[in-house]
Amino acid sequence: MRSGSTRECAGAEAGANARHALWEGFAPFFECLRTTPAAGWAGPLSRLTQERLQPARHGDLPGWIAALERLPRLAADHLMLETPCVGVAADTAPSSAQAAQLREALEALHPWRKGPFCLHGIEIDAEWRSDRKWDRLADAVAPLTGRRVLDVGCGNGYYGFRALGAGAKLVLGIDPTPRFVLQFLAVNRLIGAECCAVLPLADDDLPALTDLAGHCFDTLFSMGVLYHRRDALAHLERLRRCLRHDGELVLETLVLEGTQEQLLIPKDRYARMRNVHAIPTIALLTRWLQTAGFSNIRVVDIARTTTEEQRATPWMRFQSLADFLDPQDPLRTVEGYPAPRRAILIGTRSG
Ligand SMILES: Nc1ncnc2c1ncn2[C@@H]1O[C@H](C[S@+](CC[C@H]([NH3+])C(=O)[O-])CC(=O)[O-])[C@@H](O)[C@H]1O
């Protein structure tokens, strides 16, 4: 029989191995960050990342880390970062045992909200066809070649990979949901991008970092986040301070139809989401952007979200948009509000 102290040692060793599997995924990014004007962020960011990913902080984390460790090591001979299905393939297809192991480890990270990903023959058909949003913005943003990109509320980092594919030299994604960080680590364990990471942070973490090494990003994405923030102006001001002068903000958010400055404040839920605080018209959103210090503001796309773009799939088996719309009138949510309609606005940091 094992003694208590042997068991403790075995537990400590397993914990250390799990931490190793995590840090192995972030290390190349921190090395890359140290070569940029944001080098001052590397220390605080890595400390914050370690703190937020303490296994004790999140009950599911040990299981997700174990899934990460079960991913087979496969050659990354062909990267696919410029195609709708982001992914990787090897010259030699994985064995059936490796393919089964890969599928099982990726399924352990369910639900996959953003994608698609094509990983050694396995297609992760996520809830969102994120490639469609990318198609709506790709030609409108300043060319990403050689730029440093910050993606706030990036989910599992789908757009970060697309930004690398479009020539960005460094992409930092932040998202406070640990599952999405682990999904990124799984995908990137296979892809092997060095100057790209998703870290477990929120927009509230940005001011402290900006004081250390502000103004260092050339392009900043904030997509699908503004309506989750109680103080939209504070969110926009934080974003501005991370951008260099003339740097570009790409803001995607829910908008209300109408030409006047108006704001919908859902009474309780909006499309079954508890945390949608406010939906402005484009006129009001434009004024918020001006107030926060952006200029050259332009609307590059307005689109109603369709049930082809957001839907349940085998990789996201919960309810999705079709369940959140009024079955008698798909132009309304189940609560009777206008159905989701999203706009992409681009502005540059003026001050
Ligand atoms: N305070 C916060 N700071 C940063 N992120 C946050 C915060 N609160 C929530 N999030 C994160 O913001 C993301 C919102 S989804 C957009 C994903 C991607 N951008 C997309 O455009 O597909 C919404 C949608 O599906 O559109 C989630 O990943 C949250 O964890």
UniProtKB/TrEMBL annotation:
<comment type="similarity">
    <text>Belongs to the class I-like SAM-binding methyltransferase superfamily. CmoB family.</text>
</comment>
<feature type="binding site">
    <location>
        <position position="133"/>
    </location>
    <ligand>
        <name>carboxy-S-adenosyl-L-methionine</name>
    </ligand>
</feature>
<dbReference type="Pfam" id="PF08003">
    <property type="entry name" value="Methyltransf_9"/>
</dbReference>
<dbReference type="InterPro" id="IPR027555">
    <property type="entry name" value="Mo5U34_MeTrfas-like"/>
</dbReference>
<comment type="subunit">
    <text>Homotetramer.</text>
</comment>
<feature type="binding site">
    <location>
        <position position="223"/>
    </location>
    <ligand>
        <name>carboxy-S-adenosyl-L-methionine</name>
    </ligand>
</feature>
<dbReference type="GO" id="GO:0008168">
    <property type="term" value="F:methyltransferase activity"/>
</dbReference>
<feature type="binding site">
    <location>
        <position position="342"/>
    </location>
    <ligand>
        <name>carboxy-S-adenosyl-L-methionine</name>
    </ligand>
</feature>
<feature type="binding site">
    <location>
        <position position="114"/>
    </location>
    <ligand>
        <name>carboxy-S-adenosyl-L-methionine</name>
    </ligand>
</feature>
<comment type="function">
    <text>Catalyzes carboxymethyl transfer from carboxy-S-adenosyl-L-methionine (Cx-SAM) to 5-hydroxyuridine (ho5U) to form 5-carboxymethoxyuridine (cmo5U) at position 34 in tRNAs.</text>
</comment>
<dbReference type="GO" id="GO:0016765">
    <property type="term" value="F:transferase activity, transferring alkyl or aryl (other than methyl) groups"/>
</dbReference>
<feature type="binding site">
    <location>
        <begin position="175"/>
        <end position="177"/>
    </location>
    <ligand>
        <name>carboxy-S-adenosyl-L-methionine</name>
    </ligand>
</feature>
<keyword id="KW-0819">tRNA processing</keyword>
<feature type="binding site">
    <location>
        <position position="128"/>
    </location>
    <ligand>
        <name>carboxy-S-adenosyl-L-methionine</name>
    </ligand>
</feature>
<feature type="binding site">
    <location>
        <position position="227"/>
    </location>
    <ligand>
        <name>carboxy-S-adenosyl-L-methionine</name>
    </ligand>
</feature>
<dbReference type="InterPro" id="IPR029063">
    <property type="entry name" value="SAM-dependent_MTases_sf"/>
</dbReference>
<dbReference type="InterPro" id="IPR010017">
    <property type="entry name" value="CmoB"/>
</dbReference>
<keyword id="KW-0808">Transferase</keyword>
<feature type="binding site">
    <location>
        <position position="153"/>
    </location>
    <ligand>
        <name>carboxy-S-adenosyl-L-methionine</name>
    </ligand>
</feature>
<dbReference type="GO" id="GO:0002098">
    <property type="term" value="P:tRNA wobble uridine modification"/>
</dbReference>
<protein>
    <recommendedName>
        <fullName>tRNA U34 carboxymethyltransferase</fullName>
        <ecNumber>2.5.1.-</ecNumber>
    </recommendedName>
</protein>
